[in-house]
Amino acid sequence: MISDSTKQVEMLPRFLSSSYPMERHYFLVPKFALSLIGFYPEQEQTWSLRAWSFFNFFILTYGCYAEAHYGIHQIPINIALALDALCPVASSILSLLKMIAVWWYRDEFKWLIQRVRKLTEQQSSKRKLSYKQRIYTLATRLTTLLLFCGFCTSTSYSVRHLTDNMLRRAHGKDWIYETPFKMIFPESFLRLPLYPLIYILVHWHGYITVVCFVGADGFFLGFCLYLTVLLHSLRDDVCDLLAIRDDKLVVTPKEESQIVRGMELLIDRHNEVAELTERLSGIMVEITLGHFVTSSLIIGTSVVDMLLFSGVGIIVYLVYTCAVLTEIFLYCLGGTYIMEACLELSNSVFSSHWHGHSVRVQKMTLLMIARSQRVLFIKIPFFSPSLETLTSILRFTGSLIALAKSVI
């Protein structure tokens, strides 16, 4: 008989299962998302691809301007309509920042993708392949969840607009020529025959916003989890190297020299992981800082919009809130994985048989323990991606919602 858990796994798409080829899991969802708009760093930069990427950049940029203009214009007139425009524009502007950052640091992203891929491919023992498969699958599933939430959010805006207009037509009222996202356009653009084209472009603007944050956020989470694999592999190699068999309590000079050489290589690997983390911090600082600064504002605004709207509008902002919460959760989860992997490396090395070796090996081991206790994390001004930070953000968001409810 097939168990219920096996049946549930079989119901998932194949790329979400652990049986999917491991090498294809590597940045699967970010590659898919950013390739749609021509911004994946490993794509060949042809003239047609550059034209397509510039078109998407223009659509997203103009959409940010039109949404912000509409929202600011509506503030003294209708605060509900203003928030309905300003809530998604915050995510659109953040996605524009992520698009620019991915393009600006594309060479650095490409180098990191290739280097981390090479290092992880070298970890090929049976034990390492086991947790590699688990972590790779986790990265794909979490980024797919983010893509699903973002897709549902963007689609729900169009569904809301179409549903409202169909209800109006059913009651004998005229169709309102507006776009799914509240934007300022010249009046001629919101009349036939141009209206269907503008509607499609605005709808695509929503999807550009989604794939930008899925790509950038997927890079952050993916790098954190793949670096975690390297730290786990380093932990296993150090413990295996320092292990002493019960039937051999004395290590020969030749074996000791091999252990010294092995420790030197492992220390170099640890240093490289630290360097990769530093380089990742350098290219992700703008993206991550912008996300942490605006996350409370975006979540708070979407919750207030849920209180102000009714019917389909509540569903739209419920889905939107879930998408934003998923984003910030992935950032904090990725940072937590790296920090816990560093502490686990330190504890495991300290618990090994390092004290049974020569003084030189003991000093090298203590050096690695001391360095691993200096936890690696993505350096961001004022923030440290972790689940503790997520708790602080949610508390602050609750305060903003309570303040907004008392004012509106």
Instruction: Quote the beta fraction.
Output: under 5%
Report helical residue fraction: over 70%
Report, as a whole number of angstroms, the end-to-end distance: 58 Å
Q: Structural class, from helix and strand content?
A: mainly alpha
Low-confidence stretches: 1-9
Rg is 25 Å
Number of helices: 12
Largest sheet: none
Instruction: Let me know the average pLDDT.
Output: 83
Output the helix-strand order.
Answer: HHHHHHHHHHHH
Give the strand tally.
0
Q: What overall geometry do the principal axes of the alpha carbons give? A: elongated
Describe this structure in words.
It is elongated and about 95 Å long. The termini are far apart. It has twelve helices and no strands. The model is unreliable at 1-9 (pLDDT under 50). The protein is mainly alpha-helical and 408 residues long. Helix content is 77%, strand content 0%.
Q: Any key phrases for this structure?
A:
mainly alpha, 12 helices, 0% strand
List the helices and strands and how they pair.
Blueprint lengths: L3 H8 L10 H4 L2 H9 L10 H28 L4 H26 L1 H16 L4 H45 L24 H48 L10 H56 L3 H39 L8 H15 L13 H21 L1
Helix pairs in contact: 3-7, 3-8, 4-5, 4-8, 5-8, 5-9, 6-8, 6-9, 7-8, 7-10, 8-9, 8-10, 9-10, 9-11, 9-12, 10-11, 10-12
